[in-house]
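Our preliminary data section would be incomplete without showing what the modeling component actually yields. Below, a chain of 395 amino acids is followed by its predicted structure, encoded as tokens that our downstream tools consume directly.
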Amino acid sequence: MSDPLAEVQTVICAIPKRRDWTQHGIAKTLEHRVILRLITKHGVEGWGEATALAQWGGIEGRYYGETPTTVTHIIHDLFAPALFECDLRAPRVVMEMLDSLIVGHPYAKATVEMALQDIRGKRCGEPLFRLLGGPYRSAIRIGHMLGMMQADEALDEAQRSIETDGISAFQIKGGTDPARDVALIERLRSALPAGIFLRLDANKGYGRIAKDLAGIVQRLEAAGIDAIEQPAATVEGMRACREATTVPIIADEGCWSARDVLELRDARAIDAVSVYVAKAGGMEHATDVARMAALAGYRCDINGSLETGIGNAASMHTALAAETLTLPSIIPVPSAANHLLTQYAGRYWEDDLVQGGYSYREGYLYIADAPGLGIQVDKKKVATYAANKPRTSRP
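Predicted structure:
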């Protein structure tokens, strides 16, 4: 308690999109995110971010949506009074205490844990990937997301990302129309260079009927897909998909915790796991998910909700410390408007809230070997994109 928490501040920021990539009506929601700043008595700052989505959760109603409003409420009205009494040097212990205050709300919890880890790293003088047990690698291979675009738009976006930014992997959003998805995969596979990794994200959209699911994933395999993410809305449906194809089946909405990995392994329902800091409720729990995946013999990636460079830094550090993270990861390449790291690949926003801390080379994203999250938050940008008046709590 030598340097206790002195202030908790949140603000909701709205970042303009680079292009329209609407997916199931959530694009407008994704523009708004909660930015958290924790300040200790001695002036050490920790940053966190929540891109909370009301319409997104786990399969079979096991996990629920959150919003910027709920995240702000949980942080200030439930967590802040307890945080002022905590020893910030042990984030995992602090988070277990916060778990006792309210069940669920992993996005709100991840935001707080992210900021606590940032403070911890700065105090230790170490980047968080090292404190989490890594690094297993120096960079993360980026997969660029192609949203719900028409075929010509998707192909143009993919070709530009390859030619301009050296990208070699794509996530194609789908799930609303299997015929559209199959045709788009066929189009991309025939037009793009050999060796490009194509991953179809169905967002549970193909339903739960086993024979239907089997037929869809077989058609996707024949079209040339390399992996299929969350094609089914149930564990049984995921197993039916896995049994019907040789293509790896990746769990996303179906896997939030290390316990979920065990259940999916026992059900023989998946081949890989998409790890999120926010789904797990923090960086340490996300690391637990990745380690459990490794023990189960699964590969993984790091994914998220298209955070700015703040939340993306937490994803990067977690990914660098994950042993079997070998799949291309669907996270942004944070670019400030006056310093673009890419023209297309991983660039979903017109601007960012960080200056520095990242570099990009030929399809791979790097983060600075610097204490904490390793980023420099531009407070002027935070103020510029603020969509509400900042809220502050003090002891």
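The domain at 5-126+378-393 is CATH 3.30.390.10 (Enolase-like; domain 1). The CA atoms of residues 272 and 298 lie 5 Å apart. Preliminary results of this kind motivate Aim 1 of the renewal.
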